[in-house]
Amino acid sequence: MKQAKLKVTLLSHTKDPERTIVAAIRQCYSQESGAELWEKVTDDQKKRLIKQVVASGHTSTIEHASFTFAIEGVSRALTHQLVRHRIASYSQKSQRYVKDGGFEFILPPTINKNSEAKKIYLNGLKNIQENYGKLLALEIPAEDARMILPNGCETKIVVTMNCRSLFNFFAERLCMRAQWEIRQMATLMLVECKKIAPDIFKYAGPTCVTEKICWQGKLNCGKPARNKSIELRERF
Ligand SMILES: Cc1cc2nc3c(=O)[nH]c(=O)nc-3n(C[C@H](O)[C@H](O)[C@H](O)COP(=O)(O)OP(=O)(O)OC[C@H]3O[C@@H](n4cnc5c(N)ncnc54)[C@H](O)[C@@H]3O)c2cc1C
């Protein structure tokens, strides 16, 4: 039984996502074909037009670029939250086909720093693992034996989202109200996206950062509207 380590790998993405999005934006207002417009995209257009569509909410145009991530070392609790994001594609390690004997586990920081809690948690996991093994030994199928496995069990998932959906995902899951683990994963995903398409993803993040607005009401984290706004404030 081993502690899992979070890893986010960007597997692939739309070829030149910013150029593709600008060609799509320009297609709305041009006689020329998308192919011709694609060839003529300038750096200035990338900065100006992408900012314009994000600020105006004309964000169907950013759906033309997608990103695919391989994610590992996360809990089933995390992926349960992740797959609530419907505008995406997912392929996850199956607990029916892949037997989880010797599963890795996620160790929440609150448990890690409390020695008594850590002892209880690790003992619980050990018991689960032993009993899972006993069920398999009794020829209980993996699809039934897995019912005993915990939320903290490690899993792996491949995720594809387009930029519009990623914006929604980052707004929700980089918020301090989001659960720590999915926030860590979203942070790593945004880092990867920014490497490939900085002119798009500089506008992505929780709304307290991108728009200087917190929608959480009484549930706010106590630090709403962080002083890091990024050019979009004129929208409000
Ligand atoms: C901090 C936090 C706490 C949460 N707590 C809970 C909780 O306690 N219980 C719980 O059940 N969930 C909870 N959620 C999950 C949340 O309610 C959403 O299901 C999840 O975040 C996915 O968001 P989404 O629907 O915007 O994303 P997507 O499913 O990717 O949808 C993207 C956007 O498409 C549009 N859309 C998609 N499907 C439809 C549709 N059928 N009809 C109309 N418009 C649609 C919406 O504009 C939506 O915002 C929580 C999420 C967060 C971030």
Give a structural overview:
- With 236 residues, the chain is an alpha+beta fold.
- It is 45% helix and 14% strand.
- It is elongated, with a radius of gyration of 22 Å.
- The relative contact order is 0.17.
- Bound molecules: flavin-adenine dinucleotide.
Task: Please describe the topology of this protein.
Elements: E1 2-3, E2 7-13, H1 17-27, H2 34-40, H3 43-56, E3 66-75, H4 76-82, E4 89-92, E5 104-105, H5 109-112, H6 115-137, H7 142-145, E6 154-162, H8 163-173, H9 180-196, H10 198-201, H11 207-210
Parallel strand pairs: 1-5
Antiparallel strand pairs: 2-3, 3-6, 4-6
The structure holds flavin-adenine dinucleotide.
What is the compact description of this entry?
Helices cover 45% and strands 14% of the residues. It is of the alpha+beta class. Helix 1 (17-27) crosses helix 2 and helix 1 (17-27) packs across helix 3.
Distinct bound molecules: flavin-adenine dinucleotide
Number of separate helices? 11
Query: Helix/strand-derived class?
Result: alpha+beta
Specify the helix fraction band.
Answer: 40-55%
Major beta sheet, strand line-up: 2-3-6-4
Shape: elongated
Taking all Cα atoms into account, the compactness measure Rg is 22 Å
> What is the number of beta strands?
6
List low-pLDDT spans. 227-236
CATH class of the domain at 7-90 and 155-205: Alpha Beta
Query: What fraction of the residues are assigned to beta strands by DSSP?
Result: 5-15%
SSE topology string: EEHHHEHEEHHHEHHHH
Give the terminus-to-terminus CA distance.
51 Å
